[in-house]
Structures are given as structure tokens and as C-alpha cells.
């Protein structure tokens, strides 16, 4: 072992030329700059995932450019909420209809479109889910007024692993407003007085949107941007935009979580529904409000009824186009949730006990069906006594009130009108 003291290592001589040194320093500085840029890009990507992007510096506007509106006493007399069809289609806003295949979402909206055509409103339908001919034929067979439905055919260009369309040659951001403007012009010039465009159906919103780089239907920020754009169009053009979407399979902590994609699909619209098949009855469905800023929570039942046969089979079910018959509407958080749960939970096998708590098919919906059938079968007015005799039981005043509300809400579907008989008794008659 050496006892010599430590000595510093002599620096190696640098034989580079001055030009070579400058080039090396520039390269080193560039490498450091690239590393910093990559690090910043990574941080920005994480911020975008969390929905918090780096704000782009903007010039500050002048206070003179800001328009303020003050609350006035007269506002209390002028501000009202209107509906195309109460309680499903509030005017001039975005409404979401979500559910698995087989829950008749398109048939449901088609029936509403036919209903509003009878009172002077028209519909623009954009779809990557159904052929154009099916949409048009269904509208006419349900009873829609001629030339009150216009269809924009979109061609699917991309599907996901489940076969659902996630891209087409139609882009909401690029094509929807021109389509609305074109449709408004056509509808306004077809009839005197005009039957203005009031409803726009997007089937499906995911498949009709071209998602920019870094965007997707599974990202809350991307979906909020889309729905914000649609709401702006709805207010600008005075139309209700109904968006149809799919649901995922499997169990979820909350029924709204079944909707495929980001939670913003159900959280961002002012009103959104989840549809499901009603397991208690064949050809029956149920829907529940997922989110509403407009009403208290409610659930509703409806059934499908064939209106056009696409293909007949000697064995097996025919391929058909359907309309929907609107059933019971149940209001209130607990009551609505109970109805939806009872309708969608697995039903006991024949002979087994249900375990109690079942919300059986509504008495009110049965009353409405019976009244419409009796009115259809005779040219004479039908009394409540006749209905109760046919049913083999009496109904309470509250039940008759609910049945009358349901008949009045959808006269186009049930074709039942009201009259007053001797001693102010309620009579039911067939509408022309």
C-alpha cells in the first residue's frame, strides 16, 4: 500500500478546434431543450387526462364589450318551460336516450316524432344504425304526417370491438348545423302554415362524431365539449336534439354507469334516460331518468307494436318495424327506482316465489289499454261504468285521474278523446 499523498487527476487535454467546441455545445443545448420539451409534454398529457389543460393566453376584453342582464320583476311572468312532448322532450335542449339493443329507443323516438307531426312540427333524423327506407316507412306507418320527416343517411366507417359504430362520413361538428339549416328551409316552404323543424335525432351520437386527436367518447372532457356544442345549436335554432347511445353489459354500482363511454353522456345533458327491457312482460320496456335539471325523477313503461313487416318467417319471429305504446309514468325518487328495478331484475321461474316487492304491471296502464280498445271497437262513447264492467272491478278516482292524464298526454297514440255526458260524467270517444 502506497504512503504517497493523494494527487489530483490531471485533466485530459482538449484537442478540439474552436468550431468543433461550438458545435458540441449547440448539440448539448439542443438535447437539454428536447428533454425539457418531452418532460413538459408528458405533464401536459397528464393534465389533459384529468381534464385540466394549460390555458392559452388570451387578450383581456374591454369591460364595454360585456353585456349584462339584470333580474327584473317582469321575468317571473315570462320565463316558462315548454315541451314538444311532456315529459320526454323539453324544447330547445339536448336529451339523451341510452340503453342496450332491444330496448326500442329508436322506435320510442320515432313514435314521438310522429306525434309532434300531427300538431305541426317536423323532425330531422340522422342515423348510422338504420337504413333510410326503414326510418321513412316507420314514420308513415305510425301515422306521421307526410313530408314532416327528413333523413340524412350516414355511412359507417369505423366500429369498435363490440361492433358499435364509432365513426362515419357524417361529422356533427362539420355537417349538423348545415343539415339543420337545409331542413328548416325545406319544412318552412312545404306547408302553409309551415311545419317548422323542432326535433333532431342523432342515432348514434358517438358514430356521427369525428373525434379529434386525443379525444374519444370515453373521455369526459371530449364528451362535454360535444354536448356543449349540441346545446348551443339547440338554443340557436330552437330545436330539441335527441341523442341515442348504447349501454354496456355487466353489473354496475349505479344503473347510469351502464351507459357506454364517459359519465358525461348522462351527466351533461339537462335530461337523460336509461332504457331497458321489461322482463315481466314480452315486448315491454322501461325507462328511468338518469339525470334531470328540469323535473323530479320519474320512470315510465312502454310496449312495442309492429307496424310494418320487413320479412315473414314460417318458423320464428318476423322482422318488423315498431311503434311504441306509452304506458304508466311513475314520479318520485323511490317509486321510480322501484319500478325500474322490478322491471329489470331477473324474474323467478314458474312456480317460484318472487320474494315480494314486485311492482306489477300498472293498473293505470291496463285501464288505458282497456279504454283505447273499447273506444276502437265502437262508434258510441264509452263510460267509466262500461270500462269497470269490462274489467270486472271498480277503479278509484285517483286511478281514473292518472289514466285520463295518460290518455290526454298522448292522444295521437291512443286516439281517445274526452266528452261530458249527463250529470257531468266523463265519456271517452274515438278521435277522428
Concise synopsis of the structure shown:
This protein is 35% helix and 23% strand. The chain is built from twelve helices and 16 strands. It is elongated and about 115 Å long.
Give structural notes.
- With 432 residues, this protein is of the alpha/beta class.
- The protein is 35% helix and 23% strand.
- It has 12 helices and 16 strands.
- The chain has helices at residues 18-49, 75-78, 105-117, 132-142, 172-190, 220-237, 264-267, 333-344, 363-377, 384-391, 397-409, 411-414, and strands at 83-85, 89-90, 94-99, 122-127, 149-153, 156-159, 165-168, 197-203, 240-245, 271-277, 284-292, 298-311, 319-331, 382-383, 416-420, 426-430.
- The strands form 4 sheets. It has a 9-stranded mixed beta sheet, with helices on both faces. The chain has a 3-stranded antiparallel beta sheet with strand order 14-16-15. A two-stranded antiparallel ribbon has the order 1-2.
- The longest helix is centred in the N-terminal third of the chain and has 32 residues, at 18-49.
- The chain is elongated, with a radius of gyration of 30 Å.
- The model is unreliable at 251-257 and 354-359 (pLDDT under 50).
Amino acid at each position: 500500500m502506497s504512503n504517497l499523498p493523494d494527487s489530483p487527476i490531471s485533466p485530459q487535454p482538449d484537442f478540439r478546434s474552436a468550431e468543433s467546441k461550438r458545435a458540441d455545445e449547440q448539440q448539448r443545448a439542443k438535447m437539454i431543450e428536447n428533454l425539457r420539451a418531452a418532460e413538459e409534454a408528458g405533464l401536459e398529457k397528464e393534465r389533459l387526462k384529468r381534464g385540466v389543460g394549460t390555458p392559452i393566453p388570451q387578450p383581456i376584453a374591454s369591460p364595454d364589450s360585456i353585456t349584462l342582464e339584470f333580474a327584473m320583476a317582469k321575468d317571473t311572468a315570462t320565463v316558462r318551460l315548454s315541451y314538444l312532448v311532456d315529459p320526454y322532450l323539453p324544447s330547445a335542449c339536448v336529451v339523451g336516450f341510452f340503453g342496450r339493443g332491444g330496448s326500442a329507443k329508436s322506435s320510442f323516438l320515432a313514435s314521438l316524432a310522429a306525434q309532434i307531426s300531427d300538431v305541426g312540427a317536423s323532425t330531422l333524423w340522422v342515423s348510422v344504425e338504420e337504413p333510410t327506407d326503414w326510418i321513412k316507412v316507420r314514420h308513415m306507418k305510425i301515422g306521421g304526417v307526410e313530408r314532416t320527416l327528413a333523413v340524412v343517411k350516414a355511412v359507417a366507417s369505423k366500429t369498435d370491438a363490440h361492433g358499435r359504430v364509432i365513426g362515419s362520413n357524417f361529422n356533427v361538428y362539420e355537417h349538423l348545423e348545415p343539415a339543420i339549416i337545409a331542413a328548416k328551409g325545406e319544412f318552412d316552404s312545404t306547408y302553409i302554415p309551415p311545419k317548422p323543424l323542432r326535433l333532431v335525432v342523432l342515432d348514434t351520437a358517438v358514430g356521427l362524431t369525428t373525434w379529434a386527436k386525443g379525444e374519444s367518447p370515453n373521455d369526459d372532457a371530449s364528451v362535454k365539449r360535444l354536448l356543449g356544442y349540441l346545446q348551443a345549436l339547440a338554443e340557436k335554432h330552437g330545436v330539441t336534439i335527441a341523442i341515442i347511445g348504447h349501454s354496456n353489459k355487466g353489473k354496475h354500482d349505479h344503473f347510469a354507469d351502464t351507459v357506454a363511454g364517459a359519465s358525461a353522456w348522462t351527466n351533461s345533458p339537462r335530461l337523460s334516460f336509461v332504457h331497458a327491457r321489461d322482463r315481466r312482460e314480452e315486448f315491454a320496456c322501461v325507462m328511468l331518468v338518469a339525470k334531470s335539471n328540469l323535473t323530479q325523477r320519474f320512470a315510465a313503461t312502454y310496449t312495442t307494436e309492429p307496424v310494418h313487416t320487413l320479412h315473414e318467417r314460417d318458423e320464428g319471429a318476423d322482422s318488423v318495424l315498431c311503434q311504441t305504446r306509452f304506458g304508466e309514468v311513475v314520479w318520485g325518487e323511490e317509486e321510480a327506482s322501484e319500478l325500474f328495478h322490478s322491471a329489470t331484475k331477473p324474474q323467478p321461474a314458474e312456480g317460484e316465489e318472487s320474494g315480494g316487492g314486485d311492482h306489477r304491471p300498472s293498473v293505470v296502464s291496463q285501464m288505458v289499454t282497456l279504454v283505447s280498445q273499447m273506444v276502437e271497437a265502437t262508434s258510441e262513447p264509452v263510460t267509466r261504468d262500461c270500462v269497470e264492467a269490462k274489467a270486472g272491478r271498480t277503479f278509484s278516482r285517483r286511478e281514473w285521474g292518472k289514466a285520463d292524464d295518460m290518455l290526454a298526454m298522448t292522444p295521437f297514440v291512443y286516439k281517445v278523446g274526452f266528452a261530458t255526458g249527463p250529470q257531468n260524467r266523463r265519456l271517452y270517444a274515438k278521435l277522428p
